[in-house]
Amino acid sequence: xxxxxxxxSITPDYYDDYIDFAALALQDADFAKVCGANDGKVDLQDxxxxxxxxxxxxxxxxxLAIELPDDRLCPPVPVSQTYILMIRYNYVHWVxxxxxxxxxxxxxxxxxxxxxFGIDIGTGASAIYPLLFASTRPNYRLLATxxxxxxxxxxxxxxxxxxxxxxxxxxxxxxxxAPLLPLDDLSLSHASFVICNPPFYASAADLVTSAAAKxxxxxxxxxxxxxxxxxxxxxxxxxEYDRNPGGDVGFCFRxxxxxxxxxxxxxxxxxxxxRLESVGKVVxxxxxxxxxxxAVRCLRAGKTRRWAVGWSxxxxxxxxxxxxxxxxxxxxxxxxxxxxxxxxxxKTAEELWDTVGRxxxxxxLRLEIDAERKTVLGFAEKNVWSRAARRKRAREGxxxxxxxxxxxxxxxxxxxxxxxxxLDIRWLEGMEEKLFESFMGMLQRAIHPR
Length: 450
Ligand SMILES: C[S@@+](CC[C@H](N)C(=O)[O-])C[C@H]1O[C@@H](n2cnc3c(N)ncnc32)[C@H](O)[C@@H]1O
What we know:
GO terms for molecular function: methyltransferase activity. The chain has 450 residues and is an alpha/beta fold. It has three domains: 67 residues, no CATH class; 236 residues, 3-Layer(aba) Sandwich (Rossmann fold), CATH 3.40.50.150; 103 residues, 2-Layer Sandwich (TATA-Binding Protein), CATH 3.30.310.80. The chain has 15 helices and twelve strands. The strands form two sheets. The protein has a seven-stranded mixed beta sheet, sandwiched between helices. A five-stranded antiparallel beta sheet has the order 8-12-11-10-9. A hairpin with a 2-residue loop joins β6 and β7. The protein binds S-adenosylmethionine (SAM). S-adenosylmethionine binds next to α5 and α8.
């Protein structure tokens, strides 16, 4: 029988610290039982209590129910797995925000009318990502792929259990070497995003070494079967290992390679990494293949940390806090900032607004001005603020600027918000960071003339 679940009472932005057990016990009778039996405390060594904790969180925060085979990786096992549920949701919400801040409305907010279609590679026995996306965003539809037959069957069960079969389609690839992104095989023209929690380890030995480094036996913290945990492409000729080292990096390299062929048929490709150093390897590969728009993120809950990398072949730039993080502190991985400020403490908002108007109005830009909010949205087809561009315009008169720019390619899209004593400048669109830098330079000179 299908469960009747209450609508979620809260959907968190991001989880960070651990949960308030007492509050959860008041909201959930099943959880109260595991708390009550133990004096209001949860025995974090008891798998059953932890399983209930995760189930209660899924029910309370997302209105979801899941059932899992004992021998498959799942959220509801020992303590770190509860954090892993929270980290999974943090990953889901980060992807949602990447989409929200690169959508057609340019206003960095969630647009419930936007139809979104996402692909989860390796959805696992729980189908946890599609369930989280579908339960938090009614306009999302998903394709979930799963190679392993046991997990595939269990994922199908969980999708049905939550009445989501009309919005989540499940696909079993014909082999381990079939495309990870089966757009062509399934006659799909586009997707909005790709999400993936890949097998993290390159071999059984890698799994054991990694668990030893964390000083805990591997299967005490994880019930994953090998197929879920290990990705070991068969290495033939020499040099292949460098091209694909296996594990999370190797799996992600495959997605990167497929993304080169797919380009803008997918707006955002993303993949989760088990180790910070993996982020460096993936970003290096992205630069190698010519990606110029990427994002890095530390996903955390309690003391557990994972990392995510996202990239796009399109020119829309996400909000700055979504692409850069001081917690991803290794060299060369941070993309160029997409938000910058210019300070002029001595000036009022009125004065700054006038100065910005004087700087922008003569230029061949498409501008949408909101004088009340002191905000201007602007698009340029090319650099029209350089000295050379100004001289050319003076020579040729204004005839060029009269043409309709609406449908032209956008080389730079920006939003300027004027406040008391400062401007916030958001880079919304463009492949060239140098163009955004040069635009910032022009504004700096307008605000602080020598
Ligand atoms: C680490 S598990 C993640 C499961 C789930 N997404 C989660 O976060 O709980 C990786 C999953 O990828 C699946 N997988 C491995 N290779 C695959 C492939 N080529 N195509 C689709 N799924 C694959 C595994 O069977 C496993 O379920």
